[in-house]
# Entry
Amino acid sequence: MKSSLLLTIFAAAILFSTSSEAQIPGVGKIKKALPEPIIGVKLGANFQQISGDGWEKTYKPGIVGGLFVGLQKGKMGVQVEGLVKSVNFQISVPTGVPAESPIKGIYLDVPLMFEYKIIPRIWAQIGPQYSMMLSAKQDGNDVKDAFKPSEFSGVLGLQAILPVHLTAGVRYVLGFTDISNSTATSGLGTATSSWKSRMIQVSVGWRFL
# Structure
């Protein structure tokens, strides 16, 4: 008898609490005012070059992938990412001279993107990016000392929010930092001009939220 009475009181309390929450003025507005969280993964291709003496002025392909998290509300949003990318830098040689092996590098990129919705599903993105070189090798030899360990860049791009939680994006990344280590004594020699990276990136992603 007592158990039945307690269960009845407990059930009535739950119903009253739910009903009261629904009727409290402003609760729905507060929930609507909160930004929408975003969590996902992305994978794509990047085409990167180094401007400066001694480098081919062509964009060499690599891959990029990682995680992104962010918040969006109305037409505004912010997104931070952790990406690992591979790069290929080709040293320029005179005509008739055999080409040297490309330098294969691995970077960790952390872009912070500020977003604005231009039209439904299309967001403009702009912001800074910090990059840290993890490795650089040529013919199996470590040439990481020829480059500075980190750099800062500016990023400008577009991202489309597609059905079934998919995303697609394109970006242009312009390096601000001279990445040459002029004091290096590696096989690449001493830099005679500034080296700055440039990259075009395309990617697709999937949002958990």
